[in-house]
Amino acid sequence: MSVTSTDMPAPRPWQRRIVVALAVLAVGHSVVLAFWLSPQSPVRQVIGGRALATYVNPYFEQSWSGLAPNAQFVDESFLVRAQVRDDDAGKNRVTAWVDITAAENDALRHDLDPARTHLMARKLATNLNGAMFGLNAKQRALVRETYTKDPTTLLRGRLLAAGADRRAAVETYMTYDLMATRFASMYAQARVEGRVIAVQYRVGRRTVPPVSEVATSSLRDKDFRWFTFGYRLGYRASFEAQSAFDDYVKD
Amino acid sequence: MIALAMGWLTREKHSTYGLAVTRMILGFIVASQLLVNWFDRHYTWGDGAVWTQPVRDAKSWPSFLGLFEQLGGVAFDLAYLGTIVFGVLLMIGYRTRGSALVTLFLWMSLYVSSPFVGSGGDAVLRMVLLYLCFTDSGRRWSVDARLGKRRGEIRPLVPEWASSTLHNLATVLIIHQVVMVYVGSAFWKLQSAVWKDGTAVYYPLQTDAYSPWHDLLQPVYAFGPVISGATYTAIVVQLFFPLLLLYRPSRFVALILITGMHLGIGIFMGILYFSLVMIAVDMILVSDRSWLRAEAWVRSRRRVTVDTL
User: Fold this and answer.
1) Of B37, B207, B274, which is closest to A72 when you measure between CB atoms?
2) Is residue B8 a part of any domain in this protein?
3) Is the ipTM reported for this complex over the cut 0.95?
4) Residue A58 preceded by cis peptide, ω within 30
């Protein structure tokens, strides 16, 4: 049932103009969103993808893959190990690899509405895997080198020299390299006694075998395809930020 | 035709009961999401999210949404608790329009502070919550409605024709959003081989992250007819959703099927949050007459229970 104002007088001409203007705005907005989500079309080319993006991003941004969770068909993995300085003993040691995504996946099991944070390491792995697929073979070899004394800005220059046509992919990679280094450092620091001086991480991906192989093969039998990165200088977070990691990881 | 459209926009507020249900579920989602994430709040959105700074900076969110990024410690906790409180106020419909605006602001401020914990449900939630601010979603089944009844009618600040126009246009935008999600998603699926051969649902149910009951239900997931049935039902319901809405009995069937699909995705893939957002928005499509009938049924059941006691 609608709320009816039957005794309401018909809108005056100036009121009608405002109503029409509002309706046109709403229709225009709907059309822009529909074109944003539509596949490539002549109309979309006329408007221009960039013009649409300027309007849609960031608030009205949406994509079919984001809205269709059933697009998931891979396991992704994020592992970290660290070089730790024991100041009392005056010695350095290397920790074992810690599979962060495995621990988070355990937390997701038998939970209908899990805490969002359990998908964080997986998303970092997804983005790093994606960034690596954007690099060429020579560039992928370069990221395996260690940058604990030299700054990673040198790595950026070397990546660009190895494939100037992949500037966007290099920038994306460098962004995720920085974030993964920070995340891995804070996570490792929360787990160890001593001071994390360098971290190394690796990311993996394995794809669900075709349904035709259901009787003979399962995803858990499959090996991950790994990308391993060189050591990076450990990131020292603020006391508050490190405490947030300590509380989460130690629980 | 134009006169008819003008009348439709300015004389009546449509879907007032459906919007009330949407409002209640969205308020519940905001409050419950924050409660579910309470113990990890500093790690997820607070000081611990500092490592996401490069991606945060790359997004062009306006600076006034930087509230949670600026806050730490007790101030962060108070803003977080405030978001839960406003989510509850939205749910019960107290000072509804103001509560909707503040909930939207706080929720978005929290959302932008950590780009790695968002999901597809967030995109729909933020758009619908924005449109909801322009509607009169507190007119039915709300504290405001009860107070209004007790207090009597107050002369509204905004003239009725303008308020109705905004309400109805925002309602249309919400419906447009949900229909676009379904139809577009169906077209996307039709381009994919695994959806066409009826096996798509199998794949996420094998992964570690999106199959929380895998250890218990794998025999069901490996059973072909269940997988193809779920896959083809999802495509057909989404593709024909707008057409099914046009005729009352088929609308009923469409809403039951789509709600079932969302519950299935939510329960079996462990993403109930995403599903609840979509279910909340779908509730606008249930006619006010049906909601009133449901209310009458609940009232009669309650009366029977009271009489029996």
Assistant:
1) B207
2) no
3) no
4) yes
For residue B163, the enclosing domain spans: 13-191+240-299
What are B243-273's pLDDT values in tens digits? 999 988 899 899 999 999 999 999 999 889 8
| Phi then psi dihedrals of residue B249, to 5 deg | -60, -40
A110: alpha, beta or left? (left if phi > 0; alpha if psi -120 to 50)? left
Q: What is the pLDDT of residues A88-121, one digit of tens each?
A: 888 999 999 999 999 999 999 998 888 999 989 9
Q: Which of A19, A101, A183 sits opposite B51 (nearest CB)?
A: A183
Cβ of B187 within 8 Å of Cβ of A241? The answer is: no
Taking CA–CA distances from A113, the nearest residue in chain B reads: B272
Q: Report whether A140 contacts B133 (CB < 8 A).
A: no
DSSP class per residue in B32-86: HHHHHTGGGHHHHTSGGGGGGHHHHHHS---GGG-HHHH--HHHHHHHHHHHHHH
Check: pTM over 0.90? Answer yes or no.
Answer: yes
Contact state of B54 with A179 under an 8 Å Cβ cutoff? yes
Residue with token string 């192989």: A213
In DSSP terms, A227 is beta-bridged to A203
The domain locations on chain A are 13-66, 72-250
Q: Residue A3: what residue type?
A: V
Cβ-based contacts of B235 with chain A (< 8 Å): none
Mutate to test the interface with A, among B56, B196, B203, B276 (most CBs of A within 10 A): B203
Write the burial class of residue A164 (CB in 10 Å: 0-12 exposed, 13-18 middle, 19+ buried). exposed
Calculate how close chain B gets to A242, using CA atoms only, in Å. 7
Report the residue of A7, A199, A211, A249 to disrupt the B interface, i.e. the one with the largest count of B CBs within 10 Å: A211
CA distances from A64 to A60, B26, B187, B258 (A): 13, 22, 9, 17
Q: Domain for residue B203, yes or no? A: no
Distances (CA, A) of A243 to A115, B45, B221: 19, 13, 41
A16 CA to centre of own chain: 47
Hey, are the CB atoms on B204 and A70 less than 8 Å from each other?
yes
Q: Please indicate, yes or no, if residue B141 is contained in any of the structural domains.
A: yes
Taking a contact as any Cβ pair under 8 Å apart, which residues of chain B between 88 and 127 contact chain A?
Answer: 116-117, 119-120, 123-124, 126-127
Q: Is B153 helix (H, G, I), strand (E, B) or coil?
A: coil
* CB proximity B139 to A under 8 Å: yes
Sequence-distant (6+) residues with CB within 8 A of A190 are A242, A245, A246, A248, A249, A250
Average the pLDDT over B70-81 and give the result: 93
Whether residues A68 and B189 touch (CB distance < 8 A) is answered with yes
Would residue B7 count as lying in a domain? no
Looking at chain A, which runs of residues are DSSP E strands? Answer: 3-4, 74-86, 91-94, 98-99, 195-207, 225-228, 232-233
